[in-house]
Amino acid sequence: MNPVSAKAGPGKAAAPPALESHGSVRPLATEDLEHVAALFLMKFRHRRSQRDRAIARTADYMRELYLGGDESKALVQINPQGRLGGFMGVLKAGYELNGRALNAAIIGPFMTDSSTDHGWAGPQLLRALHQGEFDLYLTDSANRTSLAFARPMKYQLLPVHCLEWTCVFRPGAMGAAVLRRKWPGLPRPALDLSARAFDALARARFEPSPQHSSSQRTHREPIDAAQFAEQLPILMTDYSLRPNWREGELPRLLALAAEKRADGPLHFGGLYDETGKMLGCHAFYGQAGGIANLLQIQASGSHWGATLDALIAAARDMGCVGITGQTQSRFMPQLFGYKNVFFHYAGGTMVRSRIAEVTEAVRSSDIFIGGLMGDRWTRLSSDDFGRA
Predict the structure, then answer these.
(1) What's the pLDDT score for residue 12?
(2) pTM of the prediction?
(3) Domains, the chain, ranges and CATH?
């Protein structure tokens, strides 16, 4: 969850004198974008020598993401010399708790510039955020450094949501896909030949798992973004703490999510009963020969297993070599029913609120979080802005 000087903007609470002498915090502005982009590429893409094209493309995307709608909620910390000390990406979202409207802050990239910051930027950014208008604060991508900042500030950790699951279809081809992503210059023919030979030997071990039983006949169909946007809010109504998207907001969010390029195009699917009622839906990035990446999955009642089956079948049919995605407590038992599923830590999912009912809903996992209510759907989570 690291970009330049002005005093706190109108309506911003002033920092106490002890902190103010070490810099100030204000909303992100257009003139900050190039500095923020360069810092982002250094911190999260590990590039100390930046190309102008990569910086410009990253800055353009940040402009669209953070400055393209309402007033910017993203924050920059400026040190006493007027230079960028840190940045916190923040997206505003609407939530509701049993019908009560809430303002939420989704925290994305959180970074400080070690060459200009002396340990004050991170605490100042968090303090400014917490003095704002929000009822709850959440992130699904906190790294270990951010966890160390946030846990003393009474953020609740959701351990299950911190994991990522991976289901392997073709292990050799999946290993080759991982290597190509890390080292694009590797010779493809040799990799593919080795992968095919390994997969031929491992075929029996990696056959599809039996599908989950269902009390009624179901069928799966591809759907489009508009159908997904229409049905997702209906399927998530059994969460007490859930998003409250304004009219047109979810389609716009899906359009932004579709800009992500690292894992292929965005695909949508639905699970239906015999009467045509949707029982579950999913959205994932994928392409033949690549590793599919789950964006969102949601089901009603007891249909999580069948919806997960539909997701995995859709990725297999597309020719993907495996699929990966963020875990959720509601379909964790169904994941255990699959062979060749592995789990690893991917990023901290945390929530903070002073509202006791919100805290209780989070404690009982009665919250819709992750996927579209996080920041892993943004291009900042994975895309290489330096490539053509």
Answers:
(1) 38
(2) 0.87
(3) 17-134 (3.40.630.30), 163-347 (3.40.630.30)
